[in-house]
Amino acid sequence: MAGSSKKVYEVFVSKIPWTLASKEMKDYFGQFGQVKKCLVPFDKETGFHRGFCWIGYTSEEGLNNALQKDPHVLEGSTLQVQRNRKVFLGQKTNKEVVETS
Amino acid sequence: MAALLRSARLLKFSPSGFLQRTGTNRNGPQLSRLYSGAIGGKGSGVCSRQIRGPHTDESSLGVRSKQAQQFDWALAKLDSSVRRTGRITKTLLLRIFHDICRTGYPSGNQALLLLRSCGSLLPEMPLAERTELAHRIWDKLQELGASYDASHYNALLKVYLQNEFKFSPTEFLAKMEAAGVQPNRVTFQRLIAAYCHDGDIEGASTILGFMKSKDLPITEAVFNSLVTGHARAGDMESSESILQVMKGAGIEPGPDTYVALLNAYAERGDMDKIKQTLEAVENTDTSLMDRDLMQVVFSLSKAGHQQHVPEIVERMRHERGYVPDAMNLCLSLITQGQEDTAFTVLKTFPTLQQETQSGDSPTLGNFFLRHCVNMDKPVDKVARYCKELQDSSYHATPLQFTLYCCLEAKKTATAVEVMKMMKEQGQPIRPHYFWPLLTQHAKDQNTTGIMEVLKGMQELDVPADVETMSFYVLPAFPNIDAARDAFKEMGCSLESEGFLSSEMRSEASSGNLAGLLSARLSPTATRLTHITVRFTQRIPSALLSLSLTHTQPLSWDHVLCVCARITSLLSSFSTEAVSYFLYNLMDSMTEAEVQAQEDKLRQYFNQLKSMGIIIPGNIYRGIRNLLDSYHVPELIKVSILDGKVLALESRLAELKADSKPVGATLKQLILTLCAEEVQALELKKQHEADMVAGSYAALIHLCCRHDNVEEALNLKRELSRKDSSVSLDSSKYVALVKVLTKQGRLEEAVDMLKEMKEKEVVVRDTTVTLLFHVLNAAAMKGDVVAVRRLQDTIFTLGLATPTANLCSPLVSAHLETKDLGGALEAAMECQKQYGQLPRIHDVICGLVERGDTELLQKAMDFVSQERGEMTMLYDLFFAFMQTGRHREARKIIETPGLRARPGRLQWYAEKCINGNQMESLESMVDMTAKLFECDRDELYHYVLRLCKDTNDWRKAEATWTKMQEENVIPRERTLRILADILKSNGQEVPFEVPEVKKPSEITYCSATTSKHSSPFISIPSNQKGVTLGPAPYDSLIRALLAEGSMENAMVVKEIAVGRIPGFKLNDIANSLLIITQVKRGLAKDGMSTLKSMLQGDQVPSKLSVTRLVQSLGSHGDVQGIQEVEVLMKGLGTPLNLSSMVFLNNTAMAHIKNGDLDSAVEGLEAVYTQGDGPQGPAASMAFVFRKVLEENNGAALDKLSAMAERLANHFSSYRAASDLFLQLLEANMVEDAKFMLAVGKIKTLMTLIPDFTEKETLYPYLMKCYGVDNDLVSAKALYQQMQTEGVEADELCLKRLAVLYRNAGETVPFTEPPVSARTHTLCSACHLNGIAVCLS
To answer: How far apart are CA B46 and CA B137, in angstroms?
Structure first.
């Protein structure tokens, strides 16, 4: 009930090694489609990032391309890439509510 | 696992081997048992695994329970660290130390735990620092009122030994004497060890003589020390001869003896002797573990003979637990300047299989590199290690990891060095690598530090990018100009992209907000469509979070009352909205909440039902799914639309009408007469016609009990003739089975079981027990056939699942007839068929006793194949223990790789306690001393329990000494049972008994007396000879504060200060004091208490700070609130106070001062600026409630206007939902309704004439008309849509069609097939949202 499909072109990337940051992620994921947004949260206390990020594509195609590739190996590390389920905290959603039931 | 398997395979041959020797040495070496416990002597790692956190202080003082829990958590953490890795980190230990200090009065075992941790458990800390820490802890805890007994002094001695700390034993003894603590056997042993460490045989002999004069037993540990002592004195011959002396005294040299000897050779670099000794050990009963060999490695390295290390390392067997032990060895070596040896050891680590399999790059040696960095080893040396690790594929990216460690430890210079190397290797260096180095500097606004890092970046040719500049560099400077100057001075480019853009950014952020806001406003139109969904979603979660943030937690009654009000309000305009609200309410409650409030919710649902609310099917299903997932499916049955309730009720009534009063009475009579069988049967004959099923059942049971099987069967037949549909219950059936089996009518018994199955008789737990008794009764007669037949039938019919208990009679039957072979076969059969291995202990015991090696081997093979080697070893161990073959048992339990199984050890211990077998129990405790992960306190507790049963205080006291020898930290309950035994025998208790009753008694006194008289009179004064520690005073003060008796509390405090020097209130007491002061309106006093707490490094409770801030708010003290906020930010451990506490109360303070604009401004900022608190934390319900309570109309108007503004322009509905709820709470339903008012969409349209998305808007308008049943307007709208070219979707058309039909007109278009109901929900919600926006 009340099932709503979200209009999401975002992937959630985890297991990112500390040596990679925004620029590297954007460069890598750019090969699958135009990246509109790339958010790598950093810990203000430690100065290291938290090991995950969100990549937002301008089109669904980019998202699908990124999800189809497996594994994602970058500088020797395997990144985990999945469809973004949780909307990032504090982010303004632009989801459309479509009634399915 | 490999290590375990290897050792077990060795053991495969052992059972028979042991059995052949049984005659000669049945009870194991008596002597070593008497001098038991000596083995714990030197091994540093083993004993360390036995630390256990003491259990919670059982005094159930609510006030301090929370802190106690926190503390327990810390101790558990320490414990788990030791268990997992065999070490503790300095940070963890210090944190726990500070926690204990802050909490107040440390108990004896807490102190013991801390002291005990300052030795070899800290391999990462230099020896001198460890001892220093031990002394710091010792002094600080003493200052806090911890009292030390022999166990503490012994623990300190152990730490000295482990840290190779030079001290004077005589002075140490003098210190103990001055403190009035009697040294014991363990003290002397350790002092001897200290002398021997320095090669001072003379000193050791003096103490040895003293021990002899006191008639103290000389244990293995003493001899081991002497081996070391002679060797260090340069007399190897005497050292070697000690082993003979030991044997002469009847003590077998143990592993530690050999380790002492091996270490002595190692210090000389005498490899030949080492090899000889190792071979000699192989031929004895003892075996050396990897951990023992590691000590030899350490000695070799320390003495400068590291060239021999590989040879020893090769001999290691890589037992279970090898890796953590070897890691600790490496860490110790690195700490003590032997990193090269450490590296040799590191290279012998087994590469972890799964890592290479999972495709991840290998990372062996991380710990090694990290410790090298922490110990400031030269960079080029670390680089060499890195290269070798990489070349031999142990580690894919060692330099990168080294850099990571440098950054983590914020070692700027080393980090830059490492990065230079990486750059040479062609690895990229990225700007964010420098961020960890910058964070602290940025926080401290340390511009020098920042410029230093930037210089490093420059050296590496890494330009600082925008992020680096704007997040880490510029904020540290007071302004852009200062930064520019600093850059110029350093010769940095000011034209870099990074600097320029971040400069622009900082200008922009201080610039105008207007542009930003307008950008935010533009997509308003699209957002309108989903406002309502979000609004109804928010009410429940806001409501629930409200119940948390409320000053007094809201009762569920209250919450549901508000819910009811909401539903009635919503229902007045759309039932779908109610349904949706219900769904969201269920969704936002947790499973536990729903379960706990099941009754209340049921009530609420019934209420809804009576209101005639009907939930549409889809939402109903949604709610049902939710309730199912919460495991409360019952709830939905009672609820809203199910007609089942009625059906149930009517069925119940029918049943009642059917009842036969005569039959019931008759049954009762028969039941009471059942004692007299004949009488009951006669009664039956008299009332043949009135007999009901129950009466027959009672009679059948009765006949079975009297073995009258014929009559029972007759009755049963008669019953089924009367009413074949009736079936007996399980207990009657089992009774029949039992009596039939007893009389040898096995086939009939089996038929009875089959009938049970056919008639689907309900089998309960009690039935299973009854079945067991049937089987067991047959087994006791040795009737194997009957047992097997019945058992098979029961299991194949599925009447009961095969448990070990139900399977056991089959084995018992064989054991009863002394047929061990049959018993073993039977057990094996059960394992194969049902996966149970019943009575295997008894079978194995029997085999051991009989000496049947062949069968025993068979049994062992079978057990290890089915249940694993570990189970087999334990089975064998207990069998040897049970039959008194302790020597063999020891050999088994010392199998390398074996680990403790607490359940099995407990099983045997309980057996010993019940059977009063002290000798057996004690042997088990001795033997398990080195068992991996063995909970030593637990085992000693078993011994003490038996001591208590037999009232043997001597044994109890000896047990305590043994525990010290083994460095066991007793739990409080262990100390208490020990104290109980000593006290009840009139003995002095040589340690501080953990206080349990004292404080609570006093607290109780005070709680009952304080209302009438002064409570502090009830404090027993010194004249009674009772000296109270600080803890009871502390408890009393807190109890008094908890009930608001501030004056009394202060008087008690004065008394305490007078009697106990240095007494001060602890965190909890001070927090309570703040609350009490605030309650009395003394906000200023509360403030000063808070300040003094923070100065004393104490942490106030969250509640106390909240109360203080609220009080300041209601006094209009804006400045005070700001002050508290600043103080809280400076707190080392944040309290997780919501910033809303400060914001809301600041607003209240402004309102109090009549400055409404400032109040609104402050609150509005929370919702308009993105970085404020989010989610349920951002509630301003508090402000609305206060304003409503105070009936402050002006403020309410301003705030409502603000809420509307926020909803309209910023899409922030939080304030609106808070207000809505508060209005409902205050029962201002009309006002709330106003917020939801419908039909203002037109207003919206006129407000925004160029509203572009008419496709979105018109359907809502249509829905409105639908609700109002306004066909005329709907028609007009449809026309307008057509003229404007806006396409009407199916839903719109459907609605219009419904209106037409309701008015009895024909629909002028094809009605779409969709059901309107499925869509109403969504649009109803949308409508709400629009209304909110407009109102």
So the answer is: 24
